[in-house]
Amino acid sequence: MINTVLVLNQRGDPIFIRAFREGVSNTAADAYRTHYKSGKTHVPVVRLGKQVFCHKKVKALSLVATVDPAANVMLVFTFLQTIADTLEAFFETELTEALIEGNVVVIQELLDEMCDHGYPQTTDVATLRMFVHVKGQRRAIKKEDQKSISIQATGAVSHRAQGIRYAR
Fold first, then answer.
1. 2-154, which class in CATH?
2. What is the mean pLDDT of the segment spanning 44-48?
């Protein structure tokens, strides 16, 4: 599915890179940067060599995902937009280059929770706030919250009614 997520500034320089899988070399990313900087028509999907790059412009930044050739491209574009929306909601400010550069570690943790080995998972901001804390602001998680986190993250539903006891 998604191999790498890159965030490029207006000049085409990478300000954030998160690799979910092996297989995307730095030369492939450099080839895309060269293509991006060349000023050619920026089509949303570009195939350079064996890699497919999905490009989404968000304000002054460009979110780029490298994907497998057989990947669902609409899912990738939806996920890239969801990344932008989630970051804005999580930090409660507009998505800028300074925000990305100043919060690299937190964004890394957010993407780790949002995407598991290249497959999008949890994108709900309230759930992500329970997992990821900014600048060491840890809070104690109650037992009830732990159950709700598990249910929100996995979608698991208990099919057994509460309070059932069996006689021996």
1. alpha beta
2. 88
Domain boundaries, the chain: 2-154
Q: What are the tokens at 156?
A: 């698991």
* Number of H-type helices and E-type strands within the chain: 6, 7
Residues 108, 112, 114, 119: what is their CA dihedral angle, to the nearest 10 degrees? 130
Is 153 a residue whose pLDDT tops 70?
Answer: no
Q: pTM of the predicted model, to two decimals?
A: 0.77
Q: Residue 66: which residues within 8 A CB-CB, separation 6 or more?
A: 2, 3, 4, 6, 24, 28, 29, 32, 51, 52, 53, 54
Instruction: State how far the Cα of 126 lies from the Cα of 130, in Å rounded to an integer.
Output: 7
